[in-house]
Amino acid sequence: xxxxxxxxxxxxxSVLDDGMNFHTRKxxxxxxxNANGTLFGGALLRWVDEEAAIYxxxxxxxxxAVTKKISxxxxxxxxxxxDMIEMGLKATRFGRTSLTMRAEVRNMITRAVILSIDEIxxxxxxxxxxxxxxxxxxxxxxxxxxxxx
Length: 149
Description:
By secondary structure, the chain is of the alpha+beta class. The protein has two helices and six strands; from the N terminus they run αβαβββββ.
């Protein structure tokens, strides 16, 4: 690894380079395309929201984590059939009942950033459907916060 900054357009895909701490990859298939033959933004946002939900559930230890807010979504590139994309999430803040994270999606073939989202907020809910304190303030990579029913 070098000390030279890497351009966002040619960024290497590793946790060490980008600070992201959760990665999922998807293969762009025909059913993911729009009429232009490129990745449909709605499909991509569904994938991001699902991955963010899983990440939030694991970090807050609660399977009742719901999306509260997704800030401005900046689409800067796309993908075509056969491309592989990588989604990265990073927790940026723990609130009493919430977790805030940022997201970035990149095309692993072209190495272009496809989209970035500065703020995605999830809230931990109790059985009554109301916000419930999760009791955490740090990121974990252990399975001890795996939600149970």
